[in-house]
Amino acid sequence: MKMMKKKQAERPVKTERTKTALVTGGAGFIGSHLIDALLAEGATVVCLDNYLTGRPANLRHLESERRFDLVEADVIDRLPPKVRLGKTRFTHVYHLACAASPPHYQADPEHTMLTCVVGTRNMLRFAEEQGARFLLTSTSEVYGDPEMHPQPEGYRGWVNCTGPRACYDEGKRAAETLTFDFARQKRVDVRVARIFNTYGPRMRHDDGRVVSNVIWQALHGQNITVYGDGSQTRSFCYVSDMVEGLMRLMDAEPAPGAPINLGNPHELTVSDLVERVIALTGSASGIVHLPLPMDDPRRRRPDIGRAQTILGWEPRVGLQQGLEATAAWFAEEQRQAGAKPAARRPVAAQREAFTGVAAE
User: How far is CA 172 from CA 74, 92, 120, 146, 181, in A?
Assistant: First the structure.
C-alpha cells in the first residue's frame, strides 16, 4: 500500500472533563487496545467482560494499574453492585461487548441476539442513569452482502433476516435502532461506529477471521483455507487506527447524529491477502478451497467520507506493516506455547508496542 500523503488532523485531548470510562467487552481484541489508549490519556477505566471471547491475557499487563479495574459479568444480566452501586461516576460508556466473528457469534445465536438487544438496552439505561456519553460499536455486517459498493452509511443493506448470520447482522441493526431511539428521546448522548474488518495483535487464532486464520495456518505450515475462489474482497484496518477512530468519535462535538463507518478503504481480494502472508512468513503452506459460507459478502469496502469530514480521521498504518506486526505477535504466541514455527523464514521484528506501527 502506498504512503498516505495527507496528514491526519490531531485529536484534541479534553482536559476539562476527565474520562471515567466503562468499557464492555474490554478483554477482547479491540477492547483491550482501547483500554490501553484510554489509560494513556489519563482516564480511569473499568472493564466489564464475561470472557466468552475475550481473554484475561489481553489485560494482564494492567494488573498493577491503579486507574484500572476488571469486573467479570455479562451485559445481558443486571450489572453487578460493584458497578451499579459503586462510588464511581462514569462519564463515558464504550459498548463493545458481543462475539464478532461468525464461528463465535453463530455458536450461541440466542446469546448473540440478546447481547445486541438486551445488553445494549442495559448499557443505554446505565449511561442514562450516569449521565454518561455512550458509544456503540456496530458493524459493517449491517450492510449484509451489499449491492452498493463501496458502502456509505446511507445504504440500508442487503441482509438475510433468517440466515445463520442474522443473529449478529440483525442484532446489531436492532442495537443501532435502540441507540438512536434513546438519542431522539434525549435520554443519552450517543455515537455509533460501524466497524469494518480490523486486525492486529491480540486476535484469537481460532476466531475464524481471515487474517488470523491465514497467519496462524502459515506459521504452522498448515494448508491455508480459502473459502470460495478467493476473489471476494475485504478491506483491513489495523487496530491502532480503529482505536483512534473510536476515540475521535466519542470525543466529537457535537454528536454526529448518524452512524459513522470506520475502516480502511484499501480493498484487496482474499487470494491477494494469502499471497502476502505466505511471502511474509516464508511458509510452505498449500492452499485448500472450501465452499463459500452462506450469506458471506462478496465485496466489502467502507466509504469513509463521513469519518474524514467529521472526525478528521483516516487509516495511517499500511497493510504490510500491519501484517508484519500481527504475524510477529502470533509467532511470539506460538513460541510461548512451546510450538516450533513451521515458517522457513522468521517474520519481521515486532513493531513498537505492536500498536505503534509506522505509517506507510
Answer: 17, 20, 9, 16, 14
Residue 274 belongs to a domain: no
* Type of residue found at 10: E
First and final C-alpha spacing in the chain: 7
- Quote the pLDDT of residue 17: 59
- Choosing from 168, 199, 227, 238, the catalytic residue is 168
| 168 tagged catalytic | yes
CA 295 vs. chain centroid, Å, equals: 21
Per the prediction, the chain carries an average pLDDT of 89
pTM: 0.89
Residue 123, domain extent: 20-199+237-265+297-316
pLDDT classification of 357: cutoffs 50, 70, 90: very low
Residue 48 within any structural domain of the chain: yes
Domain count, the chain: 1
Pairing assessment for the beta strands 68-72 and 224-227 based on DSSP bridges:
unpaired
**Contact indicator for 91, 129 with CB cutoff of 8 Å:** no
Task: Write the CATH number for 58.
Answer: 3.40.50.720
